[in-house]
């Protein structure tokens, strides 16, 4: 029996998230079925964590065992031949038996993509050129944001999340969601509650042929369910002028979901990468 | 009654092409329904031509009449608010009554996008780095091509289509398709048969973060049904070494579909732009 680590990229739009659910197409389910077609074995790949319906991944990591020996690159190519084009195996490698995609994680990075529909604001708002249309080829992969944003405020808001905090104000609140969050981070939830450490949290601006894109990236030791989307929804309220960056420490201290901003939509979110020891 | 011209961009993946069909989601049908919701009038927008299922548009043009007066930018914004994100109205303008999106066309440009899965070939083929995975976020919008291509041969092949030729060898052959092709260019088919003029035909190569992309663009006075996809399928056979660019004049002269190469898949094809007099 060999222990495998795979890096997987996917377009989550047409899937009910990572985790296997009866009667629904999921990434984990597609991967398990593809393994069955390629190797005759159907281990359930363990992901580094779940992603919700509509959320994408650039570098999700999963692990599983296979009895049959197979060259790593042959496994990768065979899986890609049988998987839908929306799911691609980027890398396959044999790892020590102790490796587990979720338990061994030391850090994760998420990315959130925003497309700016406003080129400018002010007295010339009536000028049709002030508005930019989100290209249909981007719509599945961005939050197309209709209001003007103050980039400096976004940067200040992002910086205020860095450090070790109780992020309860930014965690999903409905019972089902809390359960899911707990299941996602079993050990953490027992010892840490909603305490997480954010190592880095920053925005970048990029001019593309289609318009202005904003990229938020956040690297931390773990994330609560909906946490990144709630950080983003809150920061966008700050960038828009509804809230001020200075209010964020108070939102964190409140330990109440209602103290923070709305949940940004799933289609802008990408699991960027997962880090392991050494 | 005002005559309107609109420029529309769409992701054709989830639609049964441009043209209204009972019980199916089409671009023309979505646009007509959106006009109904916005204005209370439901004219059938006349496109510059049909696009097939899975084919996209950067700048499809459609025309229709509306009795109610409405500022052009208000119409654009209201349509985009009610249309699916896969269909965007890029521009709206009132035009003279004589304008008709199909009959007034003087030239069209199509674009075909190819993603190269091979970084290199040769004795190091066993090295996993020779292969590049097509990102799932591009898969809907490219032909992900698994074999190495000779770019110089592609360029030579593209040049050999320029000029006025009978393109019957590159037209769809099944009865249904021929009917559709005729309907698409009624006047042309009567007077010209399969004769079309290609003004420009060329390939470009672009390095992106994800890998190497090839863009084929062709500008002409009109195109037969499946013509661009058949030109591309033939050129890719040349680039791959199955055929030679020098054989293309013979394929054209044969006036037989079987003389040319295969039909490239729809997802790489974009109606780029449509030109009108003055």
TrEMBL record, chains A, B:
Q: Which GO terms describe its molecular function?
A: RNA binding; tRNA pseudouridine(38-40) synthase activity
Amino acids binding substrate? 110
Indicate whether Electron transport appears among the record's keywords: no
Give residue ranges for domain Pseudouridine synthase I TruA alpha/beta: 7-102, 157-277
Pfam family membership, one: PseudoU_synth_1
Q: What is its EC number?
A: 5.4.99.12
Q: What is catalysed by this protein? A: uridine(38/39/40) in tRNA = pseudouridine(38/39/40) in tRNA
* Gene Ontology terms describing biological process: tRNA pseudouridine synthesis
Record keywords: Transport included? no
**Record: active site:** 52 (nucleophile)
Instruction: Relate the protein's function as given in its record.
Output: Formation of pseudouridine at positions 38, 39 and 40 in the anticodon stem and loop of transfer RNAs.
HAMAP family, sorted: TruA (MF_00171)
What family is this protein classified in?
A: Belongs to the tRNA pseudouridine synthase TruA family.
Subunit structure of this entry?
Homodimer.
What's this protein's name? tRNA pseudouridine synthase A
Q: By which gene is this protein encoded? A: truA
């Amino acid at each position: 029996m060999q222990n495998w680590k795979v890096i997987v990229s996917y377009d989550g739009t047409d899937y009910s998230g990572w985790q296997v659910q009866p009667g629904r197409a999921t990434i984990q389910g597609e991967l398990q079925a593809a393994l069955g077609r390629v190797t005759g074995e159907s281990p359930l790949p363990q992901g580094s964590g779940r992603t919700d319906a509509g959320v994408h991944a650039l570098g999700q990591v999963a692990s599983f065992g296979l009895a049959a020996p197979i060259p790593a690159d042959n496994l990768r190519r065979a899986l890609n031949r049988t998987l839908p084009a929306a799911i691609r195996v980027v890398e396959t490698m044999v790892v020590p038996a102790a490796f587990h995609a979720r338990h061994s994680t030391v850090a994760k990075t998420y990315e959130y993509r925003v497309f700016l529909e406003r080129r400018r604001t002010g007295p010339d708002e009536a000028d049709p050129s002030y508005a930019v249309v989100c290209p249909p080829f981007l719509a599945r992969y961005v939050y197309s944001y209709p209001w003007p944003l103050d980039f400096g405020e976004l940067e200040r808001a992002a910086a205020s999340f860095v450090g070790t905090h109780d992020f309860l104000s930014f965690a999903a609140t409905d019972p089902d969601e809390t359960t899911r969050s707990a299941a996602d981070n079993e050990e953490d939830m027992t010892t840490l509650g909603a305490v997480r450490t954010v190592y880095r949290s920053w925005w970048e601006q990029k001019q593309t042929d289609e318009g202005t894109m904003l990229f938020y990236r956040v690297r931390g030791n773990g994330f609560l369910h909906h946490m990144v989307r709630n950080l983003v929804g809150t920061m966008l309220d700050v960038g828009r002028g509804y809230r001020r960056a200075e209010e964020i420490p108070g939102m964190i201290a409140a330990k109440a979901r209602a103290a923070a901003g709305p949940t940004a939509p799933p289609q802008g979110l990408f699991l960027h990468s997962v880090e392991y020891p050494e």
